[in-house]
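BUG-424 | component: ligand-complex export | severity: low

The export step for pyridoxal-5'-phosphate jobs runs without errors, but we want the raw record kept on the ticket for reference. Input record follows.
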Amino acid sequence: MVSLSEKTSFDVEALRKDFPILATQPHDGVPLVYLDNAASTQRPRQVIDKIVETYEKHYANVHRGIHWLSESSTDLYEEARRKVQAFIAAPRLEEVVFTRGTTEGLNLVARSWGDANVSAGDEILLTELEHHSNIVPWQQLAERRGAVIRWVPISDDGRLEIDAFDALLNERTKIVSVAAVSNVLGTRCPVEAIARRAHDAGAVVVVDAAQSVPHEPTDVQKLGVDFLAFSGHKMLGPSGVGVVWGRAELLDAMPPFMGGGSMIRRVTKDGFEPADIPTKFEAGTPPIVPAIGLGAAIDYLQQVGLAGVHEHEQRLTQYAHERMSEIEGLHIYGPAPQLKAGIVSFTIDGVHAHDIAQLLDRDGVAVRAGHHCAMPLHERLGATATTRASFYLYNTSAEVDALVDSLGRAKSMFSGRHRRRRSG
Ligand code: PLP
């Protein structure tokens, strides 16, 4: 099999050396083929070193102490915020709020903006593509406020029905919340167009960017949205940290999400006065070292260049589609490779998604199986479960070959069993 030609400007083999975990061998000398990046990515040495260095030389609580260690820790934490600001082209630093992840960011918007602005009979527009993190917080909001959720349908090949979106938008639509990239189908949503139309209808636009920010350049001003949430662990950073970006005038007007230390200017027995943004939304001790680690991950991604990462993943996805279509009875869900990100979810006739994942694991190939926290989408697809391979900057065409070879073995093992059962 002819290998996909990797561009010399994007040297995957050199990048792989930065990731110690990629050299581990799951079983008996079988190399690890890590294709579960949509769930969580791995960390390069540069991020791990930054975490260790912070604990060894700079760690203390932030924003509180007047001692030098606390100042050092605070400087690094705030530097990480500046890195995030530049990474997503946020107009103002205080618009960058550190959270524990995408889930917390979306809950923050639903609770804080939602409770203050959504009333009975108002409508929240979601798509059939969403992850549970971009469904349940809105369902909870709808329950609290008596609002109604409307669903933008998708086509059979997993693209958003934009005409149906237009038809669903109306003066009662208060929120439009969409995933920039589906974590199951890899479908890219036309966020800019959605934002323009939603704003014309007077709605606020929220983007679940968990699967887009790690893989392609993001400019919140160009997107023209109001809130955007993502997670550190899906972009080479630590788990336990994420970001919700929001337009300053909206964040300023919103009540705090959680109460506690740090988020106040003053507390008396009678009440409290919240601090300014972003502190108002960062109650308690924040994820200090994870945020600093996220800053290091951003440095790494910027050095590699997100445009190159995106191109590399496009080539891998195209190649994976080509090679996987060689397997009879294998069905890939979602649109054509050029319309999607580096995520390939599939089923094989007669083999359960979990069995496929288990057999692949024997060959050292790590994928995910199940509903991928998108049960309404699986219902729409008519599948209870799919197996998902998802790529990142360190994956290679040889790993796609390993996946396809292992799938071939899994398939023949199962058809062998079926033949034996039928003849037995
Ligand atoms: N949204 C999407 C599209 C995701 O893929 C995920 C994670 O898989 C999330 C939200 C939730 O992210 P986290 O678990 O980091 O909060």
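Assignee comment: Attached the raw record above. The CA atoms of residues 366 and 405 lie 14 Å apart.
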